[in-house]
């Protein structure tokens, strides 16, 4: 048991403890922003499997998020007036919603399997416009432009809602505090599963398809089946993110599931680092929290002026920074934020424990195999 | 190793348990409510010397121009209020959050400012208000939305000012029949946006058309549509005698321009969000100045009312050279509604949210000098049913003048408003 | 019948504008195999310059300035970003152009603010009437310009040295490079040309029947995506065909909205995408696109 391992375990534990402590200290703003970030992280992990690991561009991620969110609401709500609903227990509704997103992905997988790269990207653009049309017009299911109230999740009699009241360690636990822990659990599960996929046989097959499709076929990887399968898996991740998002929003908003959302997801995985779970999470946190932080602390920042005073507003500054980040990461930071972190760690290891400076041969951890390092020319 | 791990875990949990007692959030779950030294009961957003009022606006999204003037007009009101001594000896402080018309940012910003605000003086974007409506209702936070669709009615804490879009359209159709020669059996076009704005307005036009024996020819578009040629062709083919316009200013300008160029000479009547004075600087101006009207519940900024004149001069003094548009004439009265609710609540020595709401909803007839009289005791109905007919005008302040004074048509009077 | 003819003419004329935008996508895709999401901001940049300068320089000089600026911006994007990006998968470059688009669009919309800017074109709101059918002059010009430009590109790809280099690079970049084609120059020129095309398209997007340039103008570029991919991302003819198909679908669906009410209203925006999906399922590389042969 080397010192580095102990160090790693300690940092891990500290991170977990910090994550658990958050709802006890930070106010609603942080919890709300954090919940959005967690949901984005789950969705980004899914997209990273498709785009980062397999090289398939998708602009339809927002559509699958919408399927997840709306399916949860539809399955979990009692019928009310002209709005339909199945009134299932909410945990069942959540599971079914993820499956529904999977079914939607499965129905479209002929497209996902046949089209590749950027052609798929633009084809999936169609899903967003189609999805918006359905959200606005299928009123009995979606509530139309009004959206629908999201039934709070109730797990074994414990409701993730403001009532009944609950006080933990003298801190009042409302919906946000409770959902925080749910979000953590969902994110951890989603991340572990994706890590398993990426580190195992499927992950290697996916990377081979990305790096050289024909070589993958020659080596016996069923390319079209893998592409379709990853498309399905990534849509289920989006569905799960959609459920979490609906719970955090407490109401579905049809306008939200538009093209900008899909573009945000692509930006997340590039900024965070393509093809890795940690990268997706880092990117999601960066993209979700940056505008919130800039708005909240705009007084303290140079160059950023108050909204309406004519200068660069916080929202605009956030957009600019985020656009620049996408470009800068690709130009200067191959591997994204996750790549940066692993390189810093590697450098740190060399500094702190000269004894263990020899290179570790871990079974291709996703952080160390950034796409740039392995791929041949793909022209 | 296992030992170490469990020790660390135990230590972490212990540390958490101990320190959380020192956390600011640890209130033991008791609701914070206190009586100040002056005998006024206070609630969230009210301290011994300040009252915080939130503003949820859009300064970087599609309603940026509206959001900017709205916010400035409201800042002007609260500055004047503070200069006159504030409310209950407290200064009113405005906290402005720009959500850029993004529901996620709006929900986060609301979560941030709601616990420390006593009211929300304006909230742009009905998708965002709708997303938060039930939370606003639970929080009992008096909120003035800057959107006029019927789905915003029915919550005690949400006060829609003036008329809703459907009422405007009913009064508008009535105006077309009475003054523009439409008769039973005629067809009338309605171009509207997907979403609550357009579809609320459509409810009104369909109702009025049914009562008056007209037929509505519907054309639904999305905000990204820019060229209205196909829609004009469809209206022309249907032989409509007038067109109602519940879209954005850009689409309205395209519609009116194309219709004029193609020799379709009919009157156009827009909802209050279909016109913007900026359009008078574009080639669409002649068409807009010809036969285009706007039905709106709020008086235009050029209205010959003393209070409005005063507002114009004060606004121009504070923000010289800035455009005066409907944001000013809508924002300042909305701020006044909140300001006067606070004063009433102060008189009752109850500045809790419940106290502010009660004070606000107790006012059966309020006009503040800005034209329409509103009844705030109505929760599931619009505060007024009187609509102005306004016409674009190059010379006027704010680019529009009153064409016909505010009036309630018989149809609008008996119209059952759909709620929720 | 009159309505149908009118919608047909409308559809074709809108389609011409989409074809111009789609042509910009095609030129870049041919040279660099990137779907350019920054095209919207190039449009906005070109339109903005025309709008700001037409009062000072007059319309035609302002148009030239707009075209030059957009071409320069396009070239700069290629030189500063695309060329330097070291990526394995072309899809990532597409995402990079999203980043570029966000930066440029944010700055341009901040400058445009809340104004609606007129472009000062000489055609104003005149329409040409043939019998009962009328069509805006701006659209006739757009159709003529699109047809001329697409013919010019077809000829240029076939007969000029630039065209040959471009095709060689698209066919097999490595071999082309070995045979003395400077890939950097090919790519740079393609981006500049696409920028110029974007400015021309911006002109026709912002004149009558629309009131002018505003912050939302760039979004129209998104409608040209189905046009470009439907025709085939690497086909000049495809851009024209795709543009016309999208324009016609949209116009007819909108015009007959009342007869199609069972599909839900506002279906005109979705229809082009449905057509695109249908085409892609049958021909994954679009109508005129070339299926990339497998190279090992």
From TrEMBL, chain A:
Low complexity: bias regions: 362-379
Q: Which residues cross the membrane?
A: 29-50, 57-75, 87-107, 119-135, 179-198, 228-249, 261-287, 320-341
Protein name per Swiss-Prot or TrEMBL: Branched-chain amino acid ABC transporter permease
PANTHER family xrefs: ABC TRANSPORTER PERMEASE PROTEIN, HIGH-AFFINITY BRANCHED-CHAIN AMINO ACID TRANSPORT SYSTEM PERMEASE
> How does this protein lie in the membrane?
Multi-pass membrane protein
Q: Where in the cell is it found?
A: Cell membrane
- One Pfam family, short name: BPD_transp_2
- The entry's keywords: Cell membrane, Membrane, Transmembrane, Transmembrane helix
Keyword Cell membrane applies: yes
Please give the organism.
Microtetraspora glauca
The source's domain of life comes to Bacteria
Chief localization: membrane
| Region: Disordered, residue numbers | 354-379
Automatic annotation (TrEMBL), chain B:
Q: Which Gene3D superfamilies match?
A: 3.40.50.2300
Q: Name one Pfam family in it.
A: Peripla_BP_6
Q: Which domain of life is it from?
A: Bacteria
Give the signal sequence positions.
Answer: 1-22
This protein's UniProt keywords: Amino-acid transport, Signal, Transport
SUPFAM superfamilies per the record? Periplasmic binding protein-like I
Q: In its keyword annotation, does this UniProt entry include Signal?
A: yes
Q: Which residues form the Leucine-binding protein domain?
A: 50-393
The entry's family comment says:
Belongs to the leucine-binding protein family.
Name used for this protein in its record? ABC transporter substrate-binding protein
* Organism the protein comes from: Microtetraspora glauca
Automatic annotation (TrEMBL), chain C:
Where found?
A: Cell membrane
- List the InterPro entries: ABC_transp_permease (IPR001851), BCAA_transport_permease (IPR052157)
Membrane topology term: Multi-pass membrane protein
Q: What Pfam families does the record tag this protein with?
A: BPD_transp_2
Q: Give a yes or no for keyword Lipid metabolism in this entry.
A: no
Statement: the UniProt record of this protein carries the keyword Transmembrane: yes
Which sequence ranges are marked TM in the entry?
A: 7-28, 58-81, 87-104, 140-157, 188-208, 228-248, 260-282
What keyword terms does UniProt attach to this protein? Amino-acid transport, Cell membrane, Membrane, Transmembrane, Transmembrane helix, Transport
Which family does the record assign? Belongs to the binding-protein-dependent transport system permease family. LivHM subfamily.
The protein depicted here goes by the name Branched-chain amino acid ABC transporter permease
What organism is the protein native to? Microtetraspora glauca
């Amino acid at each position: 048991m080397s010192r580095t391992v102990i160090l790693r375990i300690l940092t891990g534990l500290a991170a977990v403890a910090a994550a658990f402590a958050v709802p006890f200290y930070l106010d609603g703003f942080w919890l709300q922003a954090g919940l959005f970030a967690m949901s984005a992280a789950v969705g980004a992990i899914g997209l990273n499997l498709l785009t980062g690991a397999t090289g398939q561009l998708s602009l339809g991620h927002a559509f699958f998020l919408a399927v997840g969110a709306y399916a949860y609401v539809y399955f979990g709500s009692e019928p009310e007036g002209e709005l339909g609903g199945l009134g299932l227990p909410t945990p069942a509704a959540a599971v079914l919603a993820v499956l529904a997103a999977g079914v939607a992905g499965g129905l479209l997988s002929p497209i996902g399997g046949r089209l590749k790269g950027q052609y798929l990207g633009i084809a999936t653009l169609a899903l967003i416009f189609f999805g918006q049309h359905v959200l606005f017009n299928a009123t009995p299911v979606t509530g139309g432009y009004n959206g629908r109230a999201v039934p709070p999740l109730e797990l074994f009699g414990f409701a993730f809602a403001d009532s009944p009241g609950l006080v933990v360690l003298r801190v009042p636990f409302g919906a946000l505090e409770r959902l925080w822990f749910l979000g953590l659990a969902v994110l951890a599960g989603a991340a572990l599963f994706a890590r398993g996929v990426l580190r195992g046989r499927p992950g290697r097959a996916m990377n081979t398809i990305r790096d050289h499709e024909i070589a993958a076929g020659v080596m016996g990887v069923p390319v079209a089946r893998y592409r379709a399968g990853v498309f399905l898996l990534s849509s289920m991740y989006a569905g799960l993110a959609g459920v979490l998002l609906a719970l955090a929003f407490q109401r579905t908003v049809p306008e939200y599931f538009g093209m900008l959302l899909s573009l945000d997801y692509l930006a997340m995985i590039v900024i965070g680092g393509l093809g890795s779970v940690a990268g997706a999470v880092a990117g999601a946190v960066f993209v979700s929290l940056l505008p919130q932080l800039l708005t909240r602390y705009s007084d303290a920042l140079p160059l950023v002026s108050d909204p309406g005073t004519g200068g660069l507003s916080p929202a605009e500054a956030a957009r600019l920074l985020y656009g620049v980040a996408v470009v800068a990461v690709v130009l200067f930071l191959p591997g994204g934020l996750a790549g940066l972190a692993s390189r810093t760690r590697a450098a740190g290891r060399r500094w702190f424990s000269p004894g263990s400076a020899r290179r570790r041969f871990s079974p291709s951890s996703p952080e160390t195999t950034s796409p740039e390092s392995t791929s041949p020319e793909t022209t | 190793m296992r030992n170490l791990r469990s020790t660390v875990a135990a230590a972490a949990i212990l540390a958490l348990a101990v320190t959380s007692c020192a956390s600011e959030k640890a209130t033991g779950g008791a609701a914070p409510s206190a009586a100040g030294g002056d005998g006024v009961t206070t609630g969230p957003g009210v301290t011994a010397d300040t009252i915080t009022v939130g503003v949820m606006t859009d300064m970087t999204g599609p309603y940026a121009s509206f959001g900017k003037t709205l916010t400035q007009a409201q800042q002007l009101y609260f500055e004047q209020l503070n200069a006159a001594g504030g409310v209950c000896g407290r200064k009113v402080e405005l906290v402005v959050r720009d959500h850029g018309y993004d529901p996620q940012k709006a929900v986060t910003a609301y979560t941030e400012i709601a616990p420390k605000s006593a009211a929300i003086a304006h909230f742009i974007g009905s998708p965002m208000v709708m997303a938060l409506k039930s939370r606003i209702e639970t929080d009992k936070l008096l909120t003035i939305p800057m959107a006029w669709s019927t789905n915003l009615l029915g919550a005690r804490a949400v006060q829609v000012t003036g008329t809703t879009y459907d009422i405007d359209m009913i009064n508008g159709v009535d105006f077309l029949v009475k003054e523009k020669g439409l008769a039973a059996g005629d067809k009338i076009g309605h171009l509207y946006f997907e979403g609550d704005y357009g579809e609320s307005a459509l409810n009104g036009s369909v109702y009025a058309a049914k009562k008056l024996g007209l037929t509505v020819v519907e054309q639904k578009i999305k905000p990204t549509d820019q060229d209205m040629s196909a829609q004009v062709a469809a209206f022309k083919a249907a032989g409509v005698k007038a067109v109602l316009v519940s879209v954005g200013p850009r689409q309205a300008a395209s519609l009116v321009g194309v219709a004029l160029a193609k020799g379709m000479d009919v009157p156009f009547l827009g909802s209050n969000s279909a016109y913007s004075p900026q359009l008078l600087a574009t080639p669409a101006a002649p068409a807009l100045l010809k036969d285009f009207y706007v039905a709106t519940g709020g008086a235009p900024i050029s209205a010959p009312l003393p209070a409005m004149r005063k507002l114009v001069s004060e606004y121009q003094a504070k923000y010289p050279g800035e455009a005066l548009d409907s944001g000013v004439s809508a924002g300042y009265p909305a701020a006044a509604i909140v300001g006067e609710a606070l004063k009433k609540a102060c008189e009752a020595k109850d500045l809790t949210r419940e106290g502010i709401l009660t004070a606000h909803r107790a006012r059966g007839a309020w006009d503040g000098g800005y034209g329409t009289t509103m009844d705030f005791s109505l929760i599931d109905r619009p505060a007024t049913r009187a609509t102005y007919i306004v016409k674009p005008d190059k010379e006027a302040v704010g680019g529009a003048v009153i064409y016909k004074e505010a009036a309630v048509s018989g149809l609008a009077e008996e119209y059952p408003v759909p709620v929720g | 019948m009159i309505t149908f003819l009118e919608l047909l003419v409308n559809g074709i004329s809108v389609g011409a504008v989409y074809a111009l935008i789609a042509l910009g996508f095609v030129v870049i895709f041919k040279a660099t195999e990137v779907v350019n999401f920054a095209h919207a901001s190039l449009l906005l940049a070109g339109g903005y310059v025309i709008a700001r300068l037409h009062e000072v320089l007059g319309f035609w000089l302002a148009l030239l300035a707009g075209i030059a600026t957009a071409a320069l911006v396009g070239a700069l994007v290629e030189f500063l970003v695309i060329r330097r990006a070291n990526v394995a998968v072309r899809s990532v470059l597409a995402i990079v152009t999203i980043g570029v688009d966000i930066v440029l669009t944010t700055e341009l919309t901040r400058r445009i603010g809340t104004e609606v800017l007129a472009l000062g074109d000489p055609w104003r709101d005149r329409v040409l009437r043939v019998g009962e059918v009328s069509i805006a002059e701006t659209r006739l010009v757009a159709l003529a310009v699109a047809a001329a430009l697409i013919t010019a590109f077809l000829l240029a790809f076939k007969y000029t040295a630039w065209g040959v280099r471009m095709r060689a690079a698209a066919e097999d970049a490595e071999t082309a490079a070995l045979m003395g084609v400077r890939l950097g120059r090919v790519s740079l020129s393609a981006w500049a040309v696409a920028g110029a095309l974007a400015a021309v398209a911006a002109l026709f997007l912002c004149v009558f029947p629309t009131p002018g340039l505003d912050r939302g103008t760039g979004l129209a570029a998104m409608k040209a995506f189905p046009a470009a991919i439907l025709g085939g991302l690497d086909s000049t003819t495809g851009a024209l065909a795709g543009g016309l198909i999208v324009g016609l679908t949209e116009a007819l669906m909108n015009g007959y909205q009342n007869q199609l009410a069972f599909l839900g209203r506002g279906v005109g925006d979705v229809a082009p995408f449905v057509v695109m999906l249908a085409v892609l399922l049958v021909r994954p590389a679009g109508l005129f696109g070339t299926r990339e042969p497998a190279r090992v």
